[in-house]
Amino acid sequence: MTTILQFRVVELWFVGTLCLLSVVAVVFLALRRRPAPWPLWATVSVAAGALAAVLFALVATWTGVFGMSLPWQAVAWGAGGLAAIGLGIANFWRARWGRRVVAAVSIVLFLLTTTFGINAYYGLNTTLASVLGIQIHRPITIPTGAHSGEPESHAPLYQRWQAPPDMPAKGEQGTIEIPATQSGFSARLAGFYKPPAALTAHPPRLPLVIMMMGQPGDPDPQYIAKILDAQAEKNNGLAPYVLVVDQLGDASRDPACGDSTMYGNVETYVTKDVVDFARTLPVQQRPRQWIIAGYSNGGGCAFKYAAEHPEIWGNLLSVSGEIAPGSEHPDETIAHVFDGSAAAYDAAKPARILASAGAGAYPDQWALFTAGEHDPDYIDQARQGAAAATAAGWQADSYVVPGAGHVVDALEGGMAEGFARLYPRLGLSAP
């Protein structure tokens, strides 16, 4: 069962095979030996299906239900799929049972093709397990000894580290359970990444990234691992350890990064339980060596926690991040997370936290806010975030990922730029 769940559903051959089968089914369904009004009825059904997809996209954009406009690629997949389904439904009209069976099977095929086609475009749910919302436990050895091994030094690590010849080319990924000792928060398993340098006989102390993904989404380390493996390859195996933690509890809900009766104590979980666990790892302990990062929903949480806790995190990487937690649905957030208090919601916004922190609250903070070139709403939010952080005394900037939207291209492009800038600051590469 695990092997089936790990099947990669974003591969070109898989999506291409579904498309080819769908084209064959469309040709069969379109060719009927039936006089008028069959051609008219089929045309109307096809047009109605395509129009339904376009109307859905327009309503979704107008209501802001997804927090952004649907990209044209997703709309095109939806329009093509629903048009084909319309043709399948039309084939039930005055048809023999054999054609109706083929039409029913074809409709299922069209649904699968559309679903996996849209999923492949977004590129975030790479396996059948992630599409179904099933998290697979992949045990990994957790390194220990935060206060043992090499002493922590202020000298840049890239000057002190000599990679052994038997060091692996890539890091390791897996899942771990972080005890919710103080929060009681029901979190899913965290993702964990160990870079190549950590897999040697005498690993150095390394920086640490605590990252959160989007909503819906799961704490999958594969995306940041890909970026850091590429950086490690250029820098003698050096990269941070990474904990990809769950700030949702369930992919279908948004706790808006705070403690609440309805969703549980997610803020306490991340800022207390996760941090306490992280301090047991063989990582460098100074805030300058800790990064809090997030994508989309997770980016909003990362911004909030970084603003609240400069004593923990000296660096922030917000990739296509929300300007404030719950900003996609503020009324629902106020009601469910802040007990109906708009004032409490406003006070919890990162920009408000920064503005009220006072002089000297952020002595050595760094931040980068990124967004895709074709994601104008989030470009504006990235620039707002950078401006607020700069005004509070941070070394902050924004970056637009060329050619990207709000999907995996923005995620990978934003992280690649962020860590390219962070490596010298972390002492993992020369300035």
Task: List the main descriptive attributes of the protein structure presented here.
431 residues, 2 domains, 10 strands, alpha/beta, Rossmann fold
Q: State the end-to-end CA separation.
A: 48 Å
Specify the CATH architecture of the largest domain: 3-Layer(aba) Sandwich
Helix percent band: 40-55%
Look at the structure and give the mean pLDDT.
90
Total number of distinct structural domains: 2
List low-pLDDT spans. Answer: none
Order of helices and strands: HHHHHHHEEEHEEEHEHEHHHEHEH
Class based on secondary structure composition and strand pairing: alpha/beta
Do you know the CATH topology of the largest domain? Rossmann fold
Gyration radius from CA atoms, angstroms: 24 Å
- Please give the oligomerization state of what you see: single chain
Question: Number of helical runs?
Answer: 15
CATH class assignment of the largest domain? Alpha Beta
Shape: globular
Beta strands, count: 10
CATH superfamily of the largest domain: Alpha/Beta hydrolase fold, catalytic domain
Largest sheet properties: 8 strands, mixed
Largest sheet: spatial strand order: 1-2-4-3-7-8-9-10
Kindly estimate the percentage of residues that lie in beta strands according to DSSP.
5-15%
